Amino acid sequence: MNCPIPQDQLDEIYAFAIDLARKAGKLLLERIGERNVDQIYTEKENAVDLVTQTDEDVESLIKTAIQTKYPTHMFLGEETYAKGQSREYLIDEQPTWCVDPLDGTVNFTHAFPMFCVSIGFIVNHYPVIGVIYAPLLDQLFSSCLNRGAWLNEKRQLPLIRKPSIPPMPSNAPSKCIFACEWGKDRRDISDGNLHRKIESFLNLAAERGGRGGKGGMVHGVRSLGSATMDLAYTAMGSVDIWWEGGCWEWDVAAGIAILLEAGGLVTTANPPDDLHAPIEPVKLGSRLYLAIRWVP
Amino acid sequence: MNCPIPQDQLDEIYAFAIDLARKAGKLLLERIGERNVDQIYTEKENAVDLVTQTDEDVESLIKTAIQTKYPTHMFLGEETYAKGQSREYLIDEQPTWCVDPLDGTVNFTHAFPMFCVSIGFIVNHYPVIGVIYAPLLDQLFSSCLNRGAWLNEKRQLPLIRKPSIPPMPSNAPSKCIFACEWGKDRRDISDGNLHRKIESFLNLAAERGGRGGKGGMVHGVRSLGSATMDLAYTAMGSVDIWWEGGCWEWDVAAGIAILLEAGGLVTTANPPDDLHAPIEPVKLGSRLYLAIRWVP
């Protein structure tokens, strides 16, 4: 990717984004003691689609900091978007911040540690900077174009894209860890998202030869309750495969930045008509993603 | 539970167990950089049932320390047991250490952070001390009879059994986080464990009224790849419900100790014939467990 922003400016933006993610994570930690399953959230689409005051406060903190420091940059945040009228894809070629103040809100309301703040920075439709911070785990995943992808800014093992990541198993998806989420659509209808997802998950889990030849015998099926954390762990190589449908840009912008800088692959989750065609990189906004970790 | 070991001796054993778990965790961290998916493990029952040299070395470290410090105590460890001839239930009324040196071996081989060492101490069939340490998360869950259950020895929020745990939702299992594992049995047969498990998981996930009235609309379905971690988070109240079949004593001894001391409930996962009968506490060795977190 040929970025019109000079590297030294990009490095400065990267340092700012890391600092901002840590500040946002601190606020999340302060708020977690106040959780109360029956009271602190508002249901959105249904009883498992939540937003809390914390989501809004953290987004406000991030948005204010960005608009003060970089007033010419565009901003797209989950909560800002939800309050707006438009449902169009809003990212153009301009430098744009794409932010999820709290991914894994259900986890957050239960003090289950798989929640995070996600800050992506996009230029010419390419996510050039990504920072994901899970404060209860104190795990900060980050990347900047040409600067590599890192866990906890090089302080902690395993570093991303280092020898600690083994080769992809020769008979993948066997021996792979597959991450997936059950999602918010819980309608019990045969062609609904719930049943279609579970069919796919079962195919990956079942023994080789099972499921009409589709059995993948993956090492493990993991569901963390945060697509952003799934993607961060895929970038790190702890998860080998992740797919999800219905993601918004703020769910994946930072994670895709980190995964790409770590050498991973992200494409659409629908198989192409021609299985031998070149794999197309995914476009942000496609809603349907398949990510594969870096293969040494 | 009326423990024949005086409290001051129990406190000493508790401190020893915590120290031992930290030492074992340190060894796990040292070994994680050496992982290589294709080489370092041995398959047991099938391609997803693993044991590594690390499992054996960590058990050896723990067993040696215990036998040196408490030569009269019995010891039951996963790897020791696997090498033995007997398949009988081996815990009697004597003071017995029950140890899983590495739960979540698949996660460990992928550097996915949900793996842990689990050390339980059982007297008269009751788990009186439990220590679970997840070194990559630096989360240590622990309990001792009459001493409460704690995360990171009181240093970190949320503490177990503190106001940060909200009430159980009034319409549970809705609004609950449900933890479950896909397991190692991946045979694609309709009455096999894989399909029976997924049927149960689907019931809990589906909308209210769905699945022939069985739909539970839980907040989230989580699979971490470690029954021990599932149970630790249930003790903490981050997970509300967990069930599992086929667990061994070392998978659950420490977790049950912590859950019980935190005020949680653990029983068999098969519903009784009489739904109004008193709920019986589970017996270690029953293999089939249902755990519910503490309800304030």
Automatic annotation (TrEMBL), chains A, B:
Task: Report which superkingdom the organism of origin falls in.
Answer: Eukaryota
* Reactions mediated catalytically: a myo-inositol phosphate + H2O = myo-inositol + phosphate
Required cofactor(s): Mg(2+)
Judged by the first EC level, this protein's enzyme class is hydrolase
The residues listed in the UniProt record as binding Mg(2+), with positions renumbered to this chain, are 78, 100, 102-103, 251
Which PANTHER family did the record assign?
Answer: INOSITOL MONOPHOSPHATASE, PROTEIN QUTG
The molecular function terms in GO held by this entry are:
inositol monophosphate 1-phosphatase activity; metal ion binding
Species of origin reads: Talaromyces proteolyticus
Q: Which family does it belong to?
A: Belongs to the inositol monophosphatase superfamily.
> Which CDD domains does the record cross-reference, listed alphabetically?
IMPase (cd01639)
Q: In which pathway does it act?
A: Polyol metabolism; myo-inositol biosynthesis; myo-inositol from D-glucose 6-phosphate: step 2/2
* Keywords of the record: Hydrolase, Magnesium, Metal-binding, Quinate metabolism
Which biological process terms from the Gene Ontology are attached to this UniProt entry?
inositol metabolic process; phosphatidylinositol phosphate biosynthetic process; signal transduction
> Which ranges of the sequence are coiled-coil?
none
Q: What is this protein called?
A: Inositol-1-monophosphatase
Q: Per UniProt, what is one Pfam family of this protein?
A: Inositol_P
Instruction: Cite the EC number.
Output: 3.1.3.25
